[in-house]
Amino acid sequence: MGLASTGAPWFRASMSSSTFSLLSPRSPLSRRCTLNFRRSVTENRVRKVSCSLLKVEDGINDEACELVSGVELSLGEGADNIQAYLFKAVKNNNGTGILLLSDVFGFEDSSTREFAYRIACNGYNVLVPDLFRGDPWGRDRPKAMFEEWIGRQDPQRVAKDIESSTKWMVNEFVAAGISKKLGIIGFCFGGGRVIEVLARDGGTCFGVGVSFYGTRMDPSIASKISVPVLFISGDDDPLCPVNVLRDMEKSIGSGAKVVLFGERGHGFAHRPASPEEDGDAEQAFTMMRNFLYDGLVVNNS
Predict the structure, then answer these.
(1) How many other CB atoms sit within 10 Å of the CB of residue 278?
(2) Helix (H) or strand (E) holding 46
(3) Where does the Dienelactone hydrolase domain lie (predicted)?
(4) 186 closest CA partner among 216, 150, 146, 143
(5) Is the dihedral of CA 260, 54, 112, 253 positive or negative?
(6) Pairwise CA distance, residues 260 & 280, whole Å
(7) Whole-number Å distance between alpha carbons of 193 and 210
(8) Residue 301: predicted pLDDT
(9) Neighbouring C-beta atoms of residue 298, cutoff 10 Å
């Protein structure tokens, strides 16, 4: 049993060439938002989503979720080129950039894009880069092949792609004087990379970080992190041991906070698989949202 639910709806999303559907599992009626395609001057595909009918959590103005645009981006050139997707709050945009690092299923996965979309609905600009260069882990692959696959994801290449994504966001938001600091969020594989990024960054670009059940984390580098970090995980997740989280919490110091959800395993916050996990996912989202707001909006205003 997890922490108490906030009671807000958990929206389901599916993406196709023409529609973005947001569904509440607690209602038999779906709420659909139609996306109209157009080409920007840079030939990036833009998707606009009208969300005036959606409910948002208590205390959040409905207008904050009225419009979100989605843009397919190509960052860098030649061998350094990577694909990414940017969600931008069109109305009530607070100007803050968020880098979202996916799990092993990649940046096109519907659960990851749904989560990014929800963050954008709260006023942010969320960039989701392709960490696997078009070769994410597939659910149809034999589990026995996972270690071979992950071994092909060169850590230096992944780090370089994250750095390129960070530089793009700095140029787009920080250098323009819109956002003073960026935020970074990661799930699973991406959650582990959050720790590496923040340790290297030293507070230069990023103001806060959120790691959801990070995997393959190196606690020895946590002491190099100088910004607040929120760790969210289940206490029954073998891929993200509680003792590792506690060690990093101590190493980082007063800016770190570990939140554990009882009897929850891996992936519950962005892939809830039951009504009980829906409730915990909602509370996790609210914690993250408040953490981002306090660290990036209030403290930088």
Answers:
(1) 19
(2) strand 45-50
(3) 82-292
(4) 216
(5) negative
(6) 10
(7) 11
(8) 52
(9) 10
Task: Scan for tokens 């750095």, then name that residue.
Answer: 163
Q: Please, are residues 123 and 97 in contact by the beta-carbon 8 Å criterion?
A: no
Tens of pLDDT, residues 173-188: 887 666 689 999 999 9
Burial of residue 80, with CB atoms counted within 10 A of its CB: 0-12 exposed, 13-18 middle, 19 or more buried: exposed
- Of 1-5, 64-68, 135-139, which range is least confident? 1-5
Contacts of 230 (CB under 8 A, 6+ apart): 208, 209, 210, 211, 256, 257, 259, 287, 288, 291
The structure tokens listed for 53 are 């009918």
Strand segments (E) across 238-285: 256-261
Q: Are the CB atoms for 2 and 279 separated by under 8 Å?
A: yes
Concatenated DSSP letters of 78-130: GGG-EEEEEEEESSS----EEEEE--TT-TT-HHHHHHHHHHHHTT-EEEEE-
- Amino acid identity at 104: V
Give the strands of the sheet with 31-34, arranged side by side: 12-15, 19-23, 31-34
CA distance 17 to 248: 42
Q: Are 285 and 118 in contact (CB under 8 A)?
A: yes
Ramachandran class of 95: left when φ > 0, alpha when ψ lies in -120 to 50, beta otherwise = left
